[in-house]
Backbone:
């Protein structure tokens, strides 16, 4: 085995070991990009992660200087990023002419068939980046596994918070729907009942009591719909048959 292969193996091994040890992805990837750039002869390299809407969530980069780092960032924003959005670009090698030949690449970060990021790089000179295809592919695969592993850990830590947010979203949607569908007929009921109660001299006492009960019940329904809109921290209380219901008994200002 040549020294070249040992170097490549060491970069991948250190990246895998750091991931298994639970080290921060930013640190592990920064180290791997720096070592890979030195080995392959890159002037700059970067990793970008994005969400389901292709909005960047995390970027880690290494560059020889600010100028080449800006050049790589420009390639990502104006070329690679646009091609991913418009043409579903996965991987590519590109060569640009000029005073100096410039080569660049992009490789996807994929886990279980889902693309969630990319590694890109730029090289100035005549050396052919495509000759490093196998190493770059292995590097990106190892980075993807590290990120996926940390992502699962983060999802577990944030699962309760995520559940609460989803619960709050569901309550808000329900509250808006209830207010929209109930308030109009409820206003009509209250208006008519209160008009009748204003004419108590024309109706007997027993009917007036029943109308008052209807008014009280209607007002209570209106208060409940308003409480739904004001919920900020959802709490559940036992109801019946092992089910729970939303607790609306707290102070209105909470």
Residues:
């Amino acid at each position: 085995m040549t020294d070249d292969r040992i170097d490549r193996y060491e970069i991948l091994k250190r990246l895998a070991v750091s991931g298994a040890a639970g080290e921060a992805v930013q640190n592990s990837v920064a180290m791997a990009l720096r070592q890979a750039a030195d080995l392959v002869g890159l002037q700059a390299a970067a990793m970008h992660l994005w969400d389901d809407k292709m909005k960047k969530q995390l970027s880690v980069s290494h560059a020889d200087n600010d100028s080449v780092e800006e050049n790589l960032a420009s390639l990502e924003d104006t070329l690679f990023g646009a091609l991913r959005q418009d043409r579903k670009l996965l991987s590519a090698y590109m060569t640009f002419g000029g005073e100096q030949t410039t080569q660049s690449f992009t490789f996807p970060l994929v886990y279980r068939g889902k693309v969630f990021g990319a590694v890109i790089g730029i090289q100035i000179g005549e050396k052919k980046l495509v000759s490093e295809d196998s190493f770059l592919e292995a590097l990106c695969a190892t980075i993807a596994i590290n990120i996926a592993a940390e992502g699962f850990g983060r999802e577990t830590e944030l699962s309760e918070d995520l559940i609460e947010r989803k619960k709050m979203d569901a309550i808000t949607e329900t509250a808006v729907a209830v207010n929209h569908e109930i308030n109009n007929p409820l206003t009509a009921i209250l208006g008519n009942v209160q008009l009748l109660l204003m004419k108590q001299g024309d109706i007997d006492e027993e009917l007036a009591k029943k109308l008052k009960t209807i008014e009280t019940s209607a007002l209570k329904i209106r208060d409940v719909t308003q409480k739904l809109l004001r919920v900020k921290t959802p709490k559940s209380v036992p109801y019946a048959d092992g089910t729970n219901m939303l607790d609306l008994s707290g102070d209105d200002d909470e």
